[in-house]
Design brief:
about 475 residues, about 70% helix
Length: about 475
């Protein structure tokens, strides 16, 4: 029964073309790994590995969820199935959506990770990454955020040579890091299967909690104009969303967080980045080609974060309601403007930190400043426009139920992210790339935002794809 159940669960959650693409990509990364020298792979693994592990572990907990459809509640959960078999099937599908991300993030470094201990690290990390998404839904939003921040800081502590950190295995403390990751995997996997054994109860609790939250703290826009309501909503709250199974989360639900808490967290992160830069190395010559790893790591993390913010811009929109208040082009322009202002509130502490570092003689900080002020905001707008044009699946609720099956169309929304990460990494080293690339992205973003014809086509595509 288990093999049939596994096949059913996987096929209902992933389209066949997407499964084929995943297999092809795994083979591709394995082939690419043979072209990277072992010494270079070791160099990449240090800060890159620690930063990626910290980011994805935190995101798995902050925005994770269980891959459950409404049809599962109506059909699958009513069948006389073994709880164990059902839990295994859902966990395995969750692994394809969540845990396999680790293979894509580290697959091209195969020559380095082929050692037994590091191979164990990746397996344990994939299990922990998968499990965090499963155990997240029953938690309150505040608890999720607090634990996510704590988990990220714990992982990044490896950069300060703390041995008992999930990131330590990728930054020199192999044994201490391996023991930590295995312990984390054992704890989270045990909790995940316990949660899956009572998945129906957790779904009901999530629904009740969401409904109660809406009643306790409603958003009121009484007395505001349509434009004023847009800015009030997007400046007071911030949404994170992901809709693809690679470089994202395993569901389509957005999580709203008060903007002031996100900005406060960004300020703490910027202060830590500033202190690390000062203590990590003496002020280099203002040449524009010198580097310090903190600038690249922070830039990549901010690029990932802005991507998750961009994915929530259209996903939760009620098109019929929004576009009856304002013409499409005007509505989307103000929507994007409010989102950009919200993003800049988060980036402002990092811009200030880089400006001070540049004044102190850190030439590379000029490139990092260009990334924060131009590259990331420009890319952010382009990602919103691309997601809108692709016409993503609309989310009409905030519970544990997935909105649609994973397919290549949803995966296409992540395509710009690869180019953005590459540009951000290069621009953090070479200021001229940051300035030129940032100005180009901002110019293209402005043209698309002001184009009435583009937004008319977007509105038509959204309507044709079921947005209501």
């Amino acid at each position: 029964m288990l093999p049939k159940l596994l096949k059913f669960v996987i096929r209902t959650r992933f389209s066949r073309p997407l499964l084929i693409l995943i297999a092809i990509m795994l083979v591709y990364f394995a082939a690419v790994s043979t072209l990277i020298p072992s010494q270079q792979a070791n160099l990449i693994l240090g800060y890159y590995g620690t930063g990626i592990v910290a980011l994805f572990l935190a995101m798995a907990l902050a925005a994770g969820g269980v891959m459950i459809f409404k049809s599962d509640r109506d059909y699958l959960f009513t069948l006389p199935l073994s709880t164990r078999d059902l839990s295994i099937a859902i966990f395995f599908s969750q692994f394809i959506g969540f845990g396999i991300t680790i293979l894509f993030m580290f697959g091209y470094l195969y020559q380095t990770i082929a050692s037994p201990l590091l191979l164990v690290d990746l397996v344990a990390l994939a299990l922990a990454f998968t499990s965090l998404g499963v155990i997240a839904p029953p938690m309150t939003t505040r608890l999720r955020v607090a634990l996510s921040v704590g988990l990220a800081l714990w992982t990044l502590a490896a950069l300060a040579n703390f041995p008992l950190s999930p990131g330590a295995a990728f930054n020199g403390n192999v044994y201490g890091g391996t023991v930590t990751i295995i312990a984390l995997a054992v704890v989270t996997t045990t909790l995940a299967f316990r949660s899956l054994s009572r998945i129906e109860l957790d779904m009901m609790r999530s629904l009740v909690r969401t409904t109660s939250s809406d009643i306790k703290s409603p958003n009121s826009y009484a007395g505001k104009s349509p434009v004023g309501a847009i800015y009030s909503m997007n400046l007071s709250n911030m949404s994170l969303a992901g809709r693809m199974n690679m470089a994202g989360t395993s569901r389509y639900i957005s999580r709203r967080v008060k903007t002031r808490w996100v900005v406060a967290t960004a300020a703490v992160g910027a202060a830590a980045y500033f202190i690390y830069a000062l203590q990590g190395a003496p002020a280099p010559a203002v040449s524009g080609t010198d580097t310090f790893s903190g600038a690249i790591l922070v830039a990549v993390v901010l690029a990932f974060f802005s991507f998750f913010l961009s994915q929530s811009a259209i996903t939760n929109e009620r098109i019929w309601l929004s576009l009856t208040a304002l013409p499409p082009a005007i509505y989307f322009r103000h929507l994007i403007a409010s989102r950009v202002i919200s993003l800049m509130l988060i980036l402002a502490p990092f811009a200030a930190a880089n400006a001070v570092l540049f004044a102190l003689g850190y030439g590379v900080a000029l490139g990092a400043l260009g990334v924060v002020l131009a590259v990331i905001p420009g890319a952010f707008v382009l990602e919103i426009c691309w997601a809108a044009y692709i016409a993503p699946i609309q989310v009409k609720g905030d519970d544990m139920v997935m909105a649609a099956q994973f397919s290549l169309r949803q995966l296409a929304t992540a395509l710009p992210l690869g180019g953005v990460i590459l540009l951000v990494s290069i621009a953090s080293i070479f200021p001229v790339v940051a300035i030129a690339g940032g100005l180009f992205l901002c110019a293209v973003s402005a043209l698309l935002t002001m184009s009435g014809g583009f937004w008319s086509r977007v509105t038509t595509k959204l309507t044709e794809n079921g947005f209501v």
